Amino acid sequence: MASNNQPLELLLLNYWAPEYAAKLGTTLSSFVLMVLCWLLLSRRPTSHRLQQHVSQLDSKAKDAASKPSISVEKSELATRVISHVHAIVVSYGAAVFLYRVFVLGERWDGTGERPQAYQIMDFYVSFSIAYFIGDTMMCIVLYENYGPGFLFHAICGLICFSWAMMRQLSENHSQLWCGGVLIWELSTPFLNNIFFLKTYFPHWKVLPVLNGILLVIVFFVGRICIGFPVTYDIITQAMPLYEQHHISFGEAVLISVFAFLMSVLNVFWLYKLVYGILRKLRRADKSAKKAE
To answer: What is the pTM of this model?
Structure first.
């Protein structure tokens, strides 16, 4: 029912603050651009090695169950390129935002107009929402290939960044948290480099090892050294924000649980990265000894 003698349509239209229009418009336009780029790149050949692999999969595919693996191979280039661009853009934006807040002192106290740094951060949050919409869709469709970890990561990103976009908290905690979390994406380009090097430069031996070492270092600094303090701040500030009536109890619990589980997932991924690098180094050492 309509209240205050206003039609229901006007109540629905005025439910969102005008400032959300720009954020939603940025998200929508970014998502459309990403989809168009994905469709364009997914139709292009990637490399001779992948073309042969896809052909083998096509010839062996006798039922629909094997189709997801083929879809992954055919869409790998498009997925990696978009992931690469997103990671570079948002990690740059997050680094500049955190520098302006903590070094230049553009921190907002919750009163008056928000500093420009916070307004610019709105763009990167909206851009990330568009990416995580597509990422969630991919992880659902190709769940058998990507697994629960990547799906959980995508859902967390989509829900948490969407929540941050709609919330303007005291001292704008949500923007500060987003800046700290987006720094995690610094490691993503190195992860994508594994695909690019393996696909286009399979005979290079030294660069993949160096890339792997840099991946572990950047992952540790971004997702552990920076990620743990951000997670701690989210968990310790969530309940006080609820007590101050800035967020609901459900929101406080949800963001705390998501932050904790994402940190656990980051530790698990770090373990897998370190294990993989050590295994490659052992193999390289054995090959060198055999050559001698």
So the answer is: 0.81
